[in-house]
Amino acid sequence: MFAMTPVHAEKLQGIGFGDSLMAGYQLENGNGFPDQLQAVLREKGHDIAIANAGVSGDTTSGGLARLEWSVPDNTDFVILELGGNDALRGIQPDITRQNLDQMIEALKARNIDVLLVGMIAPPNMGDAYGAAFNKIYAELAEKHNVPLYPFFLEGAITNPELMQADGIHPTKEGVKIMVENFLPFLETYLTAQKTE
């Protein structure tokens, strides 16, 4: 094992793998979540690159189908953000769970770390659906021993000024708030990598 520098001996390669929330729907290039997150991390001295592998409209089934070719072998970690479109379409939570489960297993089998990002079912899907869907992420995080960020839109979804007119996708400023909230979670992971 080589010695680590105070920052990191090699540039870490991360990927934001998700749907339109990751892709930066209706935002100008450079304003999506992976780009803003990478910029803030570099300002803080981290030698890191975070590629954007978000596809608008993607479900967990779509993500599973493209996972292998979307995530290169030199990837150190994946921020896995999928499931929101499953809930919007009323896809059975068991299917969402199975797809996420397979994605986590596939990434771990390739020695790629997974940072799981949770979603919450919209209220109009009903209490029973929400109860079944909302527990998926915590249970998978525990099963696979991966870190969980409970809700991707934390800090933005409750403020209309930070959301686009559709009420689903954040504005550039909304993404900035999401990045600020996500940063401590990711830095906890990065710190752990330096001490291994």
UniProtKB/TrEMBL annotation:
Tell me where on the tree of life, at the top rank, the source sits: Bacteria
Q: Which Gene3D superfamilies match?
A: SGNH hydrolase (3.40.50.1110)
Q: Show where the SGNH hydrolase-type esterase domain sits.
A: 17-176
Family annotation (Pfam families): Lipase_GDSL_2
| Endpoints of the signal sequence | none
Q: What is this protein called?
A: Arylesterase
